[in-house]
Each structure stands twice: as C-alpha cells, then as structure tokens.
Amino acid sequence: MTERKLGRGVAIVGAGMSRFGTFPGRASRDLFVEAFQAMRESVDKGLDPRDIQIMYLGNYSSDLFEGQGHTAPLMADWVGLTPVPALRVEDACASGGVALRQGILAVASGLYDIVLVGGVEKMSDLPTERVTDTLATAGDVLYEIPAGFTFPGFYAAMATAYMDRYGATPESLMAVGRKNHENGALNPKAQFSLTIADIMAKKIAGAEKRGRPVPTWRDEMEFLHDHQANPIISWPLRLFDCSPITDGAAAVLLVAADLARQFTDAPIHIIGSGQASDVALHDRPDPTVIRAAERASHQAYEMAGIKPTDVKLAEVHDCFTIAEILASEDLGFFERGQGYIAAEEGLTRRNGPRPINTSGGLKAKGHPVGASGVAQAVEIWHQLRGEAGARQVSGTPDLALSHNVGGTGQTCVVHIYERR
Amino acid sequence: MTERKLGRGVAIVGAGMSRFGTFPGRASRDLFVEAFQAMRESVDKGLDPRDIQIMYLGNYSSDLFEGQGHTAPLMADWVGLTPVPALRVEDACASGGVALRQGILAVASGLYDIVLVGGVEKMSDLPTERVTDTLATAGDVLYEIPAGFTFPGFYAAMATAYMDRYGATPESLMAVGRKNHENGALNPKAQFSLTIADIMAKKIAGAEKRGRPVPTWRDEMEFLHDHQANPIISWPLRLFDCSPITDGAAAVLLVAADLARQFTDAPIHIIGSGQASDVALHDRPDPTVIRAAERASHQAYEMAGIKPTDVKLAEVHDCFTIAEILASEDLGFFERGQGYIAAEEGLTRRNGPRPINTSGGLKAKGHPVGASGVAQAVEIWHQLRGEAGARQVSGTPDLALSHNVGGTGQTCVVHIYERR
Amino acid sequence: MSPHSFTHAEYLAHLQNHVLAASRCQNCGELYLPPRPLCRRCFAQDMRWEELSGRGELVAFTVVHIVPSAMLEAGYDQDRPYVSGLVRLEEGPTISALITGVDAHHPETIRVGSQVRVVFPRGDQDPGPAPLVFEVVSES
Amino acid sequence: MSPHSFTHAEYLAHLQNHVLAASRCQNCGELYLPPRPLCRRCFAQDMRWEELSGRGELVAFTVVHIVPSAMLEAGYDQDRPYVSGLVRLEEGPTISALITGVDAHHPETIRVGSQVRVVFPRGDQDPGPAPLVFEVVSES
Ligand SMILES: [Zn+2]
Ligand SMILES: [Zn+2]
C-alpha cells in the first residue's frame, strides 16, 4: 500500500534534554523537570507552558526501575501541566520514539495543536542483576528468558550469526564503539563525554594515584582487547560494545506546522514517520535482519518522498555496537553484509560521508531507555539548526533520520526531519 | 476553549471480551486471544484480521504482574497482526480507556482506517500483598505510599471525607455493591455472575456440605455487615465494596465512520471523547471530587453536543463502591452530595431512570486493570445494539457514556457513544 | 542554590533532622509540600526550603486492614490495622501521612477535622516504614 | 479440544514428560513452536499437539557472562558463563534454548550450524531454571 501523508504538517519548535548519567537521589520527576526546562529555553520566541494541550511520555518501566506506575500524570504535574491529558507510551527501548509518533498523530488528528513529548528513565537505583532482569522483560519472558537470554545476549546472538555469515569480527564492532565515544566526547550532556583514549588516560592516572600497577596499553585497540578493562558481557559483546545504565530525560515540543513560526523562525519539520512490529527473535527467518526497521524506514521514506541516500545524518539505536551495524543495513544506507566494512572504514564518522550518531549514540551519550527515542530528536534538532557546537556536522545538514528499536526488534520506529 | 470535533468520524464495528475471572496457567496472551476471537465473531459482515492497520493495547503493569514488558507487539503476534505497529498505553486503571482514545485519534489523524484497541491484565499470579503493592504504584510512591496508603485506602479516605460532608453511611456504599452484583448475575462473562443472595446461598450450601456451622443471615444487609463474610479491607470499605483481582482481556475494532457499513449495519459511533489529568490525591482542594472526571466529561459532552441528562446508560469506574457514587456526581448525573441518595433509592439500577454499570461494573464483572476501560466499551456495544441478553436495558438506549479512572483520579477518560 | 535540588532525598534528610520542610517559590510565593523544584503556578525555578509548623487538620482518613508488604514487615496486618490520612497543614498544603493517637479498632471514633501535629521518632527509635507521622491532639 | 489450551503451562507439562511439543494448525498445516492457540497464518483456532524430533541446528548463540538473577541463583556468574542459542528444529520452527556440549570458555570454538539435539534431565535431576536444553552433537 502507498503510505499516506499526515492530515496536517507537524514541526518541532523546541527540544532539550537533561544531563545523562547516574544521579543518586534524583528521581524520574527531577530528571524530567531538567529536560522540560532545557526544552523550554530552546524555544526561540518563548513558550508559555499553559499553551501545551497534551503530553505523551515515553517510559519503559518506571514500574520495575522505581516501583512507580502511572508515571505520565505525575511527570505532567511536576512540570506544571495538570490538567492536560498525560499518557505513557511503552514499547520497550522504542518507547520514546513511539511517544513522538503518537504526538505527531495527535496533531494530525486535528484535536491538538501544541503537544509535549517527553521521555524518561531512572535506571541506576537497582543493582546490576536486577537491571539485567528488567531489560530482559522486553523479550518473551515465557519462551526466551528461561533460555538464559539477557538483553546483551540477544544482540550477541545476532552478532554471532552476522559474523558467521559475513566475516565480521569483534574488531568490527569495536570500530562502532570507538567512533561513538569520539562523538560523545564532544557532547557535554553525554554520560561519557570521553573518547576511549580519554578513558584510558583516566584509568592510568587513577592507577598512578592509588599506587596500583599502571596499565600499559599501546592504543585503543589494545585497551579494548584487555579482558580486565573491557570484560565480556555476553560474547562477542564486551563492556564497550554495550550502552550503559543511565538516568535521564528528554523533551520536544511539537506544533501544527502552520503555527511553527509563532515559536521560532527555524522549526524542524517532521516529514516522515513509520512504525512496525515483529515476532520474538527466535521466530524470525534471519537473525541478522531487523525486519521492523526495514519496514518502518520504508514507510517513513515513502511518506517523506526521499531515498536512503538523501539522508545527511542519522541517529540510530546503538544499544549495542552490532545494533548500529545492522541498522545501517536495515535503513538502506549500506548493502547487506557491508555495514561492518563501512564502520571499519570510518564512513559513519562525524566527518565521513554518512554520519551516524553524532550525539555519541546510546553507547556514549547514555541510554535511559524511555528517553532515548526523544533524545535522538533533540540531537537532530541541534544538528539541523547548526547548533550542535563542537560536534556540528559541517555544512549544516538539512535532512536527518532517527531510528529507535524496542527489544530485539519487536518494535521499530523511524522519523525523518527536514530544515526548510 | 471550545472543544473541537475530530477530523474524521469514528465508529465501533466489533467488540468482545474474554471471560473475566482468575485463570491459573493462562497468561496475558491466552486471555488476549480469547478477547480477539470474541471481537472478531462480533463483526456482522466479517473481519479479515489482515485489514487491521495498527494496534493499541491498554495494560497497567504486565511488568509487575507477569514480569513481562514490551507487551504490545507480543499480543499483536499472538493474534497474528505482526507487522502492524503495536503499542502499549498506560495510565493505571484508565489504560484501556486511554488506549481507546488513542485509537480514535489514530483514525482521526487520517493515517489509519482500521484500528484494533485491546486491553489486558493478568493479575492473579501474584500473592495478595504483592497485588496490593502493585496497585499502589498508581499513587505517588515517594509521598503517598510511605504514608501506608493502599489503593483501597485512597478511596476509603475519599469515603470518610464524603461521609463526613454529606452524611452518607457504609450502608449507602453497600447499595452500590448490591446493585452491581444484581447486574453481574446476568452477565455470563462476569467474574461473579452472582447476586449477593446467590453468594450467601453458596456459602450456606458449602458450610452444610463440610459440616461446618451454617450461617443464618436474614438478608443481604445482614450478610454485608458480617465481619467474617464481608471483612474490612480499608475502613469504611469492606470486601464487597472492592473490585476483585481479575484476569481478563477485551478488544474493540474502530474504523473510520465512512467505512463502518462495510463491517456492520449497526455500527456504534463515538461522538465524544475527553481526557484530563490531576495531581496526587492529597494535593487536591477537595477529596470528594474527581476533577479529572468533571473535566474529561465536560470535554466529551461538548464534543458530542449533549448534556448529562441525555445519557441513557453509563458504564462508570466503580473500582470501589464510593467511586461509583463520586462518578455519578462528577459526570453531572446527580448534584453534589446526592449521589449516595440516588444509589440508596435505586435510581441507578438497571431498570431505574439512570442505569449505571449494567455489566456488573468492575465490582461484579471483575477489574483486570488495563482491560476494564475497553470492556466498558464492549458492554455499551452490546446494550446500544440491543444484544445484552438478560441484562438488556429496555427500549434499547441510543446514547451511552463510559468513564474510566486511573489511580485516584490523576487520569480520567470519558467517551460518548451513539446508535444512529 | 542548585536547580537540581528540592528532591525527595533532600526532603527525607530534613525529616531525619526532625524538620518538616516545604519549598517556597521566590517568584510568586507559592508553597509546596511535597517540595518541588519548579513552580507550577509561575514556572519559575527559584525555590527555598521553609520549615513548617507541623500543625494541621485531618481532612480524610482510613483504617488499613489489608496492608502492603512494607507495613506487613513492620508488624501490621488484618488484626493490627493502622490509620493513614490526609493532613492539611496550617500553612496551606495537604500531605499524606500515618496517623497516630486514634483507636484503629474503633474507626467511628476518628473524626475528620481533628487537629493534628507532626511527631518524630524519639532518640534512636526506628522511624519505621512511614517517615511522616501526625498525631491527633484534639477532636474537632 | 478446549480453545483455551496450547498455553505455556501445557507446553511445560509436556517438557516435564520429556516431550518437546509444538502446535499444528489443522486448517492450514502451519507448525508452531512456541505453541499457540490461534493460527497467525489462516486465523483458525483448531490446533493439535505434535511431538518434535528434538533434532536441529544452531542458528546463533552467545556466551553469557553477566547473568540474570535466575541464572545467578543457579550457580552461573561472570567466571562461570553459560551458552544460550537459537535452534532451528528439523521440522522448521526456531526456538530459544540453553546450549550444552560446548566450551563456554572458548566461544571461538562454538560454530553456527552445529547439529544439536534436545536433552532432558535424567531421573529426578533438577531441571534448573532453563526448561529447554539442547546439546551440540556434532560440528557443522
Ligand atoms: Zn512561582
Ligand atoms: Zn492455519
């Protein structure tokens, strides 16, 4: 079927995020206030929050992470939006992107003109094994989890199948992590505003200070091969192949396109949107393809009337390094089996021909699950407006894409953004 | 502001629910399949499930009840809808009604014509105290729950304030429970297809069979005053003032109004929809008013162009008996302080002037949290089409309302339905 | 003043020091209990902590017999119920709290409108699962 | 046949009897593992249980070092990792399972494409947290 156009155009006129990291003593509501304020400050001509008419909240599992359900009206209250409708949207790690898509539909429905889309997750209060348990609930807890699969485990299995099929190696994956840390080092809100080399230097300085044996890594690759410094999480994925446990929030303000100039002279239009679902990982014919991403991006490209080659900049869902490689193929940026070669060759670096994850991605920026999809839109807002600071892609790109995956790919949502 | 109309008309052309009850060994997916099949069988001219374009799922906390997140694509797969977009909507006990509202917006947006709205909750796997804990997460877990409040506790506090203000008594509340069991007794899918008198007879028969002392209640009121038979949960609420722990699912099929006749000659049009949020209970000026319900119903009435007196039949959120009394005032059916008198006088009985909860309500039909809002629409579908069997309201009403509350009223969503 | 304060953690730290603290907006004067960092009336983010008198009035209450896990662990159950309530402080805000000084076994003797005052655990008494407790000091 | 069967509980009961069972649609012939009550191909609800051979091929795998709570309790940890994998049965469907008969400490020796067969706990051996286990019987 031919993808339809939205009933009404939709634009982003404000976007902001909290710092990402681990923040003991700060609850979801505190993170959300910080993101909301950052969003508000980004609205060039100012925003009276009383003009917001509805709020969508992407959140994966405040239930398990904080023991808090019914999070949406609570967040709405904490930023002063009561009594507008407030609802939570959940599709695991794609919750933020799916909330954004619902915000777009709300404007297109004609019922709302000014919509807040937020995302939040407070993950660091739980011990690591319970974070592992909680993330695993995005798989099928009856048929997948009792097999011993964890969330890294699912993607690690995709990686072994991909490596077997195409000849990629653990080193191919490391190229993705190195690149995303290079970008994250230029993002002051990232959880790791550090390159791998910066992290090595910090560890050496720490060992010297404490009088411990000082590591003698020759280069980043030697560091990444050190079992102590970069332990295996789920083979072939090591620590630096995995996005961290993160607390954070993000928020974007959507308005009907015809109202956008009331808020800014540089709105970012959302011209394509797609979403699809899929079965459990074991049930798919090929574990090296995220079919929901293929399908969602196809929908978004068709709605926007563009081809993959038109995309100047993409924020993709690198929950694990292998995920970024698969995404770069699912989105049509590279042929099947070529994504890892592109990563190794540096084609996806910030100044390469196909920049991916200039924000640092989930790997370096951090991955507060329900906020990540919204934070992708925040990065694109900055880049398309030429306001990304030290990590600004040269030439100020005019067309960008975000790709947000839930679970192992049971959900994918893709958006396409344009500066006009 | 004047409430707007939807960009496109929306109609229900199919609706069904699973049996409600406690079903050991049956997971959410099994309940959802049953509801889906009931919905499918209700479509007069047949439904090819492949024509469904998106699925919304109301679910409160599969996370805590079943340890399962990312429930929407899983349910979509289990009924064969993959790869359509599938997302979960959460607003505590209002999750189902809010999912319905999002389904309506999806049609109104012009992007979708045929939308499945489901709701599901599997609650009975947990021990009672953990169900109590889980339901309490709908309150503010930082500021309300450490005060010892449970979910019945919140509504019990509203009841003490209401009783103090207006002179209502525990017996006023009992009138609501008796009425809803009378209705539930006529609903074969209800968890309690039994009047209070039926329950008394069953207990007497059971005692006789086991050779235990046989209770000698004179009437229903004596039974309801018996501390053994009807223990206090949270004073003044007793067991028969509280909705039970329930497993169940429900599903409705929404289509653009101009397509409705392809599916049935008797579609039910959704002519009004409203939603609002509120702060925590302690933060409201008056604990005897659910302001979100007042506001959501005002929106819905205005969109539908009707007055409260036009409503022939209502399914309201009687998670507790006091909640039904407050709802009957919040919705404008009765003046403030008159709701309990109306209940005592039987005005809300099935054959009274203002029938409320002909399905048996959450009390007797059961309250699988995320399914309840959708199941309300299922009852209205049956009643407005004159297909409610033994509990059919006479004269086949043409205008009905559903009222679904999340938490203590931090969310309320109201819909108005019309047979044309 | 860090814009990142007025968290629940800071509120609890005040309580542990026997201070019931609210946040007051320095822009419009609104007082918040629970404390919050952002004013929902004027949207300023300029709060200060302010100690409350701890005196107030019982607005609503319940006697909880079917208790949550935390209270079960603290020794409450169906036969040993406790009272939770909403307390309107004399400074204005209303808060949820555990209520003592009443007879949980005779709920009909508990009165909406009763005067209450905050009580803190004495010495190194365990504060238990409920960090905020008010005691009924006189009937209305 | 009750339309309410083909649940996970019934599947587990079969496994406890050392039967790996799938559901087959009697209308279109599609075979489902995990079993399911409703056919997603033809939408019929007319399934029958069918025992599988338990022979298959390893499609993908991983060696899990950071383990979930259930596996931690079963004695696995960072230094005692286990292998999870996707197994394509010879009858067609693919399922998630614990994989034995491989050296978890030398993942580079584990081969995608290896032949596997289902193994059940012997006698009254504890089945552990993973109810479905396949053993590698030969390399591809
Ligand atoms: Zn203020
Ligand atoms: Zn079939």
Characteristic key phrases:
heterotetramer, A: 420 residues, alpha/beta, nine-stranded mixed β-sheet, two-stranded antiparallel sheet, 14 helices, 11 strands, 36% helix, C: 140 residues, mainly beta, OB fold (Dihydrolipoamide Acetyltransferase, E2P), 2 domains, five-stranded mixed barrel, three-stranded antiparallel β-sheet, 8 strands, globular, binds zinc ion
Strand order of the largest sheet of chain C: 4-5-6-8-7
> What percentage of the residues of chain C does DSSP assign to strands (E)?
25-35%
Q: Termini separation of chain A (Å)?
A: 28 Å
> Biggest sheet of chain A, in brief?
9 strands, mixed
Tally of alpha and pi helices of chain A: 14
Q: Could you report the average pLDDT of chain A, rounded to the nearest whole number? A: 96
Rg of chain C (C-alpha, Å): 16 Å
Instruction: Return the average pLDDT of chain C rounded to an integer.
Output: 93
The helix/strand series of chain A, from N terminus to C terminus, equals EHEHHEHEHHHHHEEEEHEHHHHEE
Heterogens: zinc ion
What proportion of the residues of chain A form beta strands (DSSP E)?
Answer: 15-25%
User: What multimeric state do the chains show?
Assistant: heterotetramer
Structure, described:
- The complex is a heterotetramer, with two copies of chain A (420 residues) and two copies of chain C (140 residues).
- Chain A is α/β, with parallel strands linked by helices.
- Helix content of chain A is 36%, strand content 17%.
- In chain A, the strands form two sheets. A nine-stranded mixed sheet of chain A has the order 3-2-4-7-1-8-11-10-9, with helices on both faces. A two-stranded antiparallel ribbon of chain A has the order 5-6.
- In chain A, α4 packs across α14 (369-384) and α7 (170-184) crosses α11.
- The longest helix of chain A is centred in the middle third of the chain and has 16 residues, at 151-166.
- Chain A starts with 9 loop residues before the first strand and ends with a strand.
- The model of chain A has no long low-confidence stretch (mean pLDDT 96).
- Chain C is mostly beta strands and 140 residues long.
- Chain C folds into two domains: 8-51; 55-138, OB fold (Dihydrolipoamide Acetyltransferase, E2P), CATH 2.40.50.
- In chain C, strands 4-5-6-8-7 form a five-stranded mixed barrel. In chain C, strands 2-1-3 form a three-stranded antiparallel sheet.
- β3 of chain A pairs antiparallel with β3 of chain B, so a sheet runs across the interface.
- Residues 25, 27-28, 30, 39, 41-42, 44 of chain C line the site of one zinc ion (ZN).
